[in-house]
Each structure stands twice: as structure tokens, then as C-alpha cells.
Specification:
Main location: endoplasmic reticulum
Number of strands: 2
Subcellular location: Endoplasmic reticulum membrane
Shape: flat
GO molecular function: aspartic endopeptidase activity, intramembrane cleaving
Number of domains: 1
Radius of gyration: 20 Å
Strand order of the largest sheet: 1-2
Strand content: 5-15%
Helix content: 40-55%
Keywords: Endoplasmic reticulum, Membrane, Transmembrane, Transmembrane helix
GO biological process, one term: membrane protein proteolysis
């Protein structure tokens, strides 16, 4: 059976054993530990900006004057 890009992506997504979402309570200060409204951060919300910042850091270091 040939593997297309979409079937490989599905297989990786199904077999990836890591937290894929982080829930932060929105109303923690008002309701304490029984807060029921949550904000969702997905893995892409954390990883993509992190990769972008890492690339910017490498760019900054490559452009820095040599001592």
C-alpha cells in the first residue's frame, strides 16, 4: 500500500504520545479551583512561535558583529 503525505500525517498524529493541548482557567481568580471556563492552547500555539523565535535568534547572532 503506497503511503501518501496525508496518510503519513494521520499516522504520526495518531501515534504521537505527548500533550497536545493546555487548558488555562479563565476565571481562576473569581471562582478559585472550581473555575469552569478555560482557555485552550494547542501544541501549534506553543511550538510554532517557539520555532520562529529560535530562527530570529539565529538570524540575530549571524548578523552580530564579530569580536
Amino acid at each position: 500500500m503506497p503511503h501518501t503525505a496525508s496518510t503519513v500525517q494521520v499516522e504520526v498524529a495518531k501515534s504521537f504520545e505527548a500533550p497536545i493541548k493546555v487548558l488555562f482557567p479563565k476565571d481562576l481568580l473569581e471562582n478559585g479551583w472550581v473555575a469552569n471556563q478555560c482557555a485552550l492552547l494547542g501544541l501549534g500555539d506553543i511550538v510554532i512561535p517557539g520555532i520562529f523565535i529560535a530562527l530570529l535568534l539565529r538570524f540575530d547572532r549571524s548578523r552580530a558583529p564579530r569580536e
